[in-house]
Specification:
The chain is an alpha/beta fold and about 500 residues long.
Length: about 500
C-alpha cells in the first residue's frame, strides 16, 4: 500500500481530544486524517468518569444521550474517606444545572466512549487510519511528512498542519521538542474493574491515605455491581519517597473492602493496567511551526484529580478554532499559531491556576499528616454548611471553581478556626491547665513538624518547592479577582 495523500490537518491520536478535534474540523469541510495506533474498541487507563462539562460537550456533538443510556446511574453523590475515617457522604455539592451543565457525572468506559467519538469524527468525513503507528515526523517545504507503519504496509501522509493528540508519551511532542517531563506535574495511575459492589445508585467513593500522599484512590460504580477502582500518585512522590503504584493499588483494594460497607465482596475481574497523566501545571506553549498539542500530549489534565477527558475535548475545540483561522489565512508558522496559547490560557487559567496552586502546596510529602487533619475538618464543616461545601469542594477539581469565592471562604474559615481554637485553648488553660493540643495547637505542632522534616531532609528541594509556590501565587493573584470562570459557561460548538 502506498499513500501520499495531502490533508489539511493530520491528527495523531484518536482518543477524546483527537476525535473531538477531527469532528470539529471535518464538519466544517476541512480535510482531516486521524492516525490511531490501536484498533477500537480498546482499553485505556482511566477512571471512566466524565464530569458534567464533558457530558455537555458530548450532548452538543449529538452522542450524549446514546452514551448515557448505555451507562450506569448518573453520578450525583460521593463518599470521601480520609484514612479509615469517613469524612463526607452526600450529594456532590457543586453539581448544579447551569449553562447547559447537567447536575451529574457519568461513568462511561473508555472502550465505549472513545470508539463512539472516533465514529462520530468519521461520520463527519474524517479519514481514520486505525491500527497505524506514527514512526517519524518531519516538516519540510511547509508540509508535515508523517511516516506511518501498519501491519500491512508503511506509507507517508502529508499535511499543512498536524495535531498531537497522542497522549502522555506523544511522538508529536517529542518530534518538536515539546515533551513535558517534570515529575511534579505527572501522575502515575493503575486501575482495574471489580465486581461484587453494592454501592447506592449514583454514589462514587474517593479516599486519601498518608502512604500514597500526594495521591488518592477511587471507586466509580457501574451497572451490575461492577466498578472501576484505581489509585493515582504523583510521580515525584514515587521517585522521592519510593512509592510503588502496584503495591498501593493492591493495598487500596483491601482497604476498600474494610472501609466501604458495599465493597466487602469486591473481586478483581480484570488485570490492573497502568499509565501516566500529565497535568496542566506543566503545560507549555503547545504550539510550533505547523501544529499544536492538545489533550494529554499538551498536559491539559486537572492538576488535582488528574481527570483529562473533558479538558482534552475542550483543548481540542479551542485549538480547532486556531487551525481554522490558520487555514483561512494560509498561515502555519508558530507566531500565528501562538493564538492557541493565548486562547487556552484565558479559558483554563481562571480555574486551573487555583487548582495548580493547591496541588503544588500539597505535593510536599512531609505535610501529609497536616493535610489529612485539615481535610477532615473541612469535610466536617462541609457536612454542616452547604455553601462552604459547594465552593470549597470545587477546589478539589472540576469545572465549577470560583477563585474569588474560594478565597473568601478560605479567609473566613481561617479566621473562624483561629477564633474557635484560641477560645478552646484559653478554656482548657483556665479550667484544666491543659495546652489544648487536640485543637489548634495540635495542628500547629503537626505543621511545624512537617516544616522541620521537609527543610532538613532535602534543603535544596525544600527551597525549590517554596520558590515554586511563590511563583504560582504571583500567577494566581490576578485570577482571584476574576468574577467569572469561563469553563462554567463552556465553549461555543
Amino acid at each position: 500500500m502506498s499513500d501520499s495523500q495531502l490533508y489539511d490537518v493530520i491528527v495523531v491520536g484518536g482518543g477524546p481530544a483527537g476525535s473531538t478535534m477531527a469532528w470539529s474540523l471535518a464538519r466544517r469541510g476541512v480535510r482531516v486524517a486521524v492516525v490511531e495506533r490501536a484498533n477500537f474498541p480498546r482499553e485505556k487507563v482511566c477512571g471512566d468518569f466524565v464530569e458534567p462539562a464533558g457530558l455537555r460537550i458530548l450532548q452538543a456533538m449529538g452522542i450524549g444521550e446514546a452514551l448515557e443510556a448505555s451507562t450506569s446511574s448518573p453520578i450525583t453523590a460521593t463518599r470521601i474517606y480520609l484514612g479509615p475515617r469517613l469524612g463526607f457522604r452526600g450529594k456532590i455539592p457543586y453539581y448544579k444545572p447551569e449553562h447547559g451543565l447537567p447536575a451529574h457525572g457519568a461513568i462511561i468506559p473508555r472502550h465505549v466512549l472513545d470508539h463512539r467519538l472516533l465514529e462520530q469524527a468519521e461520520r463527519a468525513s474524517a479519514k481514520v487510519y486505525a491500527g497505524c503507528a506514527v514512526r517519524a515526523i518531519a516538516r519540510e517545504g511547509g508540509l508535515n511528512h508523517v511516516d506511518v507503519h501498519s501491519a500491512e504496509a508503511n506509507f507517508t501522509l502529508k499535511s499543512r498542519l498536524i495535531v498531537g493528540a497522542d497522549g502522555a508519551e506523544s511522538v508529536v511532542a517529542r518530534s518538536f521538542n515539546l515533551e513535558m517531563a517534570d515529575r511534579a506535574h505527572i501522575s502515575i495511575a493503575q486501575r482495574a474493574y471489580v465486581e461484587g459492589i453494592e454501592a447506592p445508585d449514583g454514589e462514587s467513593a474517593v479516599w486519601f491515605d498518608e502512604d500514597i500522599a500526594p495521591g488518592y484512590g477511587w471507586m466509580f460504580p457501574m451497572s451490575g455491581g461492577r466498578a472501576n477502582v484505581g489509585v493515582g500518585i504523583l510521580s515525584e512522590a514515587c521517585h522521592r519517597q519510593g512509592h510503588s503504584v502496584p503495591t498501593a493499588f493492591a493495598a487500596t483494594i483491601e482497604r476498600l473492602k474494610i472501609r466501604h460497607p458495599g465493597c466487602a465482596r469486591a473481586t478483581l475481574v480484570s488485570k490492573p493496567i497502568g499509565g501516566v497523566v500529565k497535568m496542566y501545571g506543566g503545560a507549555g506553549s503547545n504550539h510550533f511551526d505547523g501544529g499544536v498539542l492538545i489533550g494529554d500530549a499538551g498536559a491539559f489534565a486537572d492538576p488535582m484529580t488528574g481527570e483529562g477527558i473533558t479538558q482534552g475535548m475542550e483543548s481540542a475545540l479551542i485549538a480547532s478554532a486556531t487551525l481554522l483561522r490558520a487555514l483561512e489565512q494560509g498561515r502555519f508558522d508558530a507566531a500565528f499559531l501562538a493564538s492557541f496559547e493565548r486562547d487556552f490560557r484565558s479559558y483554563f487559567d481562571p480555574s486551573m491556576l487555583l487548582l495548580g496552586f493547591c496541588a503544588a502546596v500539597m505535593r510536599n510529602w512531609h505535610f501529609r499528616e497536616f493535610w489529612m487533619r485539615s481535610s477532615l475538618r473541612g469535610c466536617e464543616r462541609a457536612m454542616a454548611d452547604g455553601e462552604f461545601a459547594r465552593v470549597a469542594g470545587a477546589t478539589f477539581g472540576g469545572v465549577n471553581v470560583h477563585p474569588l469565592g474560594a478565597l473568601q471562604h478560605l479567609g473566613t474559615s481561617i479566621l473562624r478556626y483561629l477564633s474557635e481554637g484560641t477560645i478552646s485553648t484559653l478554656r482548657h488553660l483556665v479550667s484544666e491547665g491543659s495546652s489544648g493540643r487536640e485543637a489548634m495547637l495540635g495542628d500547629f505542632l503537626v505543621w511545624q513538624s512537617g516544616w522541620k522534616s521537609s527543610a532538613s531532609a532535602d534543603p535544596a528541594w525544600h527551597a525549590a518547592w517554596l520558590s515554586d509556590l511563590l511563583r504560582r501565587a504571583v500567577q494566581l493573584g490576578p485570577q482571584l479577582l476574576s468574577l467569572e470562570n469561563p469553563r462554567i459557561r463552556g465553549l461555543s460548538i
